[in-house]
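Batch manifest line 609
LIGAND: calcium ion
JOB: complex structure
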Amino acid sequence: MESRSSGPTTWELTWSDEFSGAAGTLPRADKWNFYEGGVGNNELERYVKLGDPDGAAQKHASLDGDGHLVITAYKNTDPNLRCPNQESPTVCAATSARLDTFGKFSQQGGRFEARIKVPDGRGLWPAFWAKGTGTRVNEIDVMEQIGNRGSEAGRAHSALHGTDDLHLNGTYTLPSGKFADDYHLFAADWYPDHINYSVDGVSYHTIYRNAVEQSGRKWPLVEDFYLILNLAVGGDWPGPPDETTPFPSRMYIDYVRVFKATTPLVDAIGAITNHNDQCVDVAAAGTADGTAVQQYACNRTGAQTWTLATDGTVRALGKCLTVLGGAAGSGAELRTCASGADTQQWRVEAAAQSATVKMAQLYHLASAKCLQVPSTGSRLEVRECGPALAQGWSLPTAPTGRWKLDDGAGTTVKDASRNAAHATCASGVTWANDAARGTVAQFDGSRSCATATGPVVDTSKSFTVSAWVKLTATPTRNVTAVSQDGVQQSGFYLQYSRSMNAWGFTRMSADVANPANNTSTYGTSPPTTGWTHLAGVYNATDRTVRLYVDGAPAGTPVTVANAWSATGPLAIGHGKWNGARTDFFPGQISDVQAWPVALGPEEVRALRR
Ligand SMILES: [Ca+2]
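JOB STATUS: finished
ARTIFACT:
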């Protein structure tokens, strides 16, 4: 299942057409209809229907064999072809195609996106849009473009239409050039309380439900919507084509994809900050039920270390962020987590507070309101969701890799993070059932696992790696639990050092044979053959490494001479020395994590789950 991220939300693919098929073939009949109705807006095209003579459908809408759907508008040469929607019916200017998914696919909520290259010409009106299956009036225009009319060539339009004369329009302008010059990604991200339009990942237009309802009109996004692709010609908005309009004109669609929002695939851990750079904080680090949750100067203590858990809860100090009342202004507090309680369920939503400020919102399910900083006092509260800065939050980072090593069969180790950097193990890495940690990977001291491609962390920047490890016996040589391959050496080693007879976190001074020196931090006592949680943190700000054993810092940070970038795969169960994989781990490993930041002590403690 493909997923993609858009801001802090993870989207899971629910429907798509990649338009991969032989050149000249019709779009898939199980996905698309040729539209058979009339047109409005005084448009000047006649849409072909499936079964029209002379292969007209294929001529106007077919695959190009190169992964694209091509909708083609031709100049009409038939003087008897009348466009009936005209006030005084006139000869149609063009023939074209309009496709839709009515009766074949529709969805309520989620992300609707398409990668499209529009044609360039006066009077052309390509569009990617969606309509409500029930009303056929409610409408999301993800992209409309009206071609070669001065500055319109660099503009794309979006809109939300509904009853009560609801017409809310947005416009995106390219930094330079025309839309017809290349493909662009047009998307609408539809959440319960707002819809957000973007071009090429740049968000430019957000419409909130409460603002629409407060204006006395109905929110139109309350039904399933089906998709429409078309190339209109002429009409009230673009005006008629003229002698400069090229025919045939072609609209290319690389793909149409629809996603549903899911909760994050992995927990994110860290501070939640607002636009004032204040932190979400448990008052006086109290753990009694009902302790206020407030904004407070950031100090990165446990009272400010939040886990955005995959179950929708937001946790600190072992308890859950809770709002009990449903009314606007209800205060935030800490409470014992209760399974599935709506009062403790939060959803991360992408939002745009302004054209330049785009922070996440925390949407509270029970009250259907958003967490915000109060206008007076410090205790956080919920209010109607809107584009207020007071509702903007910077959320903790998620790991760039998480291999739980609970796969239990085969040689593929799944990465649960958004990166999906799955690892492949040499046969001989097996599976064991552990009383404490469930299914874990068993390493025999001569085989290991490595990600299929590339690095997972940039070792020249801040990062954190962690793992639960359990040795078979005290080794008689160095052994490594987690590393990332360089050419000659590993970029780091989360390891057992034989010479120190202790756990260590090590970086070599250079990626050369027999490097002159290394920098390490070590635990203070010999390892046992029970489970130990190891974390290595490289902090690029002060260029230091630090080891944590069972969540406790082992000594003080040590300065690294050269934080070179290891560009090979991340490895579980080996280190690299002078070009060869070595230091194979004998024992069990569980829940390896890689983070693109230097986690603080409270965050490292929170990794031990
Ligand atoms: Ca394609």
